[in-house]
């Protein structure tokens, strides 16, 4: 019932309603923006519970920000949400203990029959550990570019960098990930699972 | 040693799944709504100076009206003492 009344309104209209304490408008905005905030947070900090905490904090910040929002429009709201999300994730990431990839039980890479025994969970654990090896900015760039489909200028806006710097960051991040997969000899593991 | 290709890396990245199911999102939406600070809810909001003055003026008008009606009732020769007292105390 709450959603039906707010879905046709623009972000700016909903923010105006939120500014005077309209919780239904806030609920509509949550429904619109929470999915990508949660996905980004989870991929950034590699922890599902922590990601929910971050997403909640982002939305509460939006609620508190609404009275002083300067009506820039919906595109800017999305940029603002991504920016707050990545900043909170950087803080949160420091607090979370991650399992180094060396501690994950990796099957011998060249055994052909090993491929059929790789579990989805193990693949996820490995990719999560690989993400842990990246710098904060590299991880943000990969998450926003690969998973969220943002272009370099949009990511540059979120990170306060130039588009050229973002492109270089993405290149370095992908290079680091590829090198790590090569080092571990597991570059082809994911092929069978995704084919 | 074979170098990892871009395609292989993309397949690795594709394994990083996130649960974005409606059940999870709905649960989180509810959690967020419950944790909203109440300071912007109308019931808990402090009145502005203008609103405060309007509220005080309204209360004064109501009180003056009650006193005036009490005065009229008590001073009417048709009203008994008991009824006049009832009006007076009822008014307050």
Describe the structure.
The complex is a heterodimer of chains A (about 200) and B (about 90). Chain A is an all-alpha fold and about 200 residues long. Chain A is built from ten helices and no strands. Chain A is elongated, with a radius of gyration of 19 Å. Chain B is mainly α and about 90 residues long. Helices cover about 65% and strands about 0% of the residues of chain B. Chain B contains four helices and no strands. Chain B starts with 5 loop residues before the first helix and ends with a helix. Classes of the chains: A mainly alpha (about 200), B mainly alpha (about 90). At the A-B interface, helix 3, helix 4, helix 6, helix 7 and helix 9 of A face helix 1 and helix 2 of B.
* Percent range of helical residues of chain A: over 70%
Could you tell me the mean pLDDT of chain A?
81
The helix/strand class of chain A is mainly alpha
Main beta sheet strand tally, sense and closure of chain A: none
Molecular shape of chain B: rod-shaped
Order of helices and strands of chain A: HHHHHHHHHH
Question: Summed up, what is this model?
Answer:
Chain A has 10 helices and no strands.
């Amino acid at each position: 019932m709450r959603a039906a009344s707010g879905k046709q309104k623009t972000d700016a209209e909903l923010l105006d309603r939120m500014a005077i304490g309209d919780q239904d408008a806030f609920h509509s905005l949550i429904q619109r923006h929470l999915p990508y905030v949660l996905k980004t947070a989870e991929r950034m900090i590699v922890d599902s519970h922590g990601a929910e905490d971050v997403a909640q904090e982002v939305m509460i910040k939006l609620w508190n920000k609404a009275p002083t929002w300067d009506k820039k429009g919906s595109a800017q709201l999305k940029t603002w949400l991504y920016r707050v999300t990545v900043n909170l994730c950087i803080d949160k990431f420091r607090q979370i203990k991650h399992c180094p990839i060396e501690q994950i039980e990796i099957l011998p890479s060249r055994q052909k029959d090993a491929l059929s025994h790789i579990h989805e969970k193990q693949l996820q654990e490995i990719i999560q550990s690989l993400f842990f090896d990246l710098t904060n900015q590299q991880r943000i760039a990969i998450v926003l570019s690969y998973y969220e489909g943002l272009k370099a200028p949009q990511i540059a806006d979120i990170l306060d960098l130039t588009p050229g710097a973002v492109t270089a960051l993405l290149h370095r991040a992908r290079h680091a990930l590829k090198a790590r997969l090569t080092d571990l000899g597991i570059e082809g593991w994911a092929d069978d699972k995704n084919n | 040693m074979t170098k990892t290709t871009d395609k292989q890396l993309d397949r690795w990245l594709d394994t990083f799944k996130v649960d974005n199911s409606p059940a999870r999102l709905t649960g989180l939406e509810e959690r967020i709504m419950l944790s909203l600070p109440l300071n912007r809810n109308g019931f808990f909001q402090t009145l502005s100076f203008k609103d405060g003055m309007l509220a005080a003026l309204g209360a004064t008008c109501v009180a003056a009206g009650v006193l005036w009606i009490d005065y009229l009732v008590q001073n009417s020769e048709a009203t008994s003492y008991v009824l006049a007292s009832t009006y007076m105390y009822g008014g307050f």
